[in-house]
Amino acid sequence: MGAALRLVVGLGNPGPAYAATRHNIGAAFVRHLAERFALQLAPTAKFKAEAGRGSAAGVDMRLLLPGLYMNQSGQVVGPYARYYRIEPEEILVAYDEAAFAPGVVRLKSGGGANGHNGVKSLIEHLGSRNFHRLRIGVGHPGGKAQMVRYLTEVPMPLDERDLAVAAFQLDDDLLASLVRGELGAVMNRLHQPTDSPEQPSE
Hints:
Helix content: 25-40%
Distance between the termini: 34 Å
Largest sheet: 7 strands, mixed
CATH topology: Rossmann fold
Number of strands: 7
Order of helices and strands: EHEEEHEEHEHHHH
Number of domains: 1
Oligomer: single chain
């Protein structure tokens, strides 16, 4: 069993124009957590972000939505984590994963950015790769040239979004295990074979 989660970060781009895009599905997960645990998200005076804090499954946890663009996320998360003395191993970052179809969610600890600019920024500004990642499938456009538009410029179709949202709405036991740092148990559940294939990688 690892350390309990003290901070959950949802990656996305700020502003209503991006709210329904695939790139913002990580932010949607954090807003879901806020509702699930009745934690209020509000703009912070010290950091360019929305943040909340409260008890989640018996754990004192913070939620954070960086207010900068995706590729600048680390400029918020790094200083925030240092200010509150939160170690990378106590952080979960939720973000969109083009390698997985909508409806697939995977948990990973550590590793590289795998081409994701938000994760790359976090690694740079946290000075560590050792944070945990909740990778929420959004599908792949089929070619690298279409990726930016696919992720950031068009709303995610409602049927695909429904699949993605349903996949990250973990049941109470699984969510409690995640928050408490019982990541092996969560991986065992999330990584069971499904009928949803992985999408082609870039």
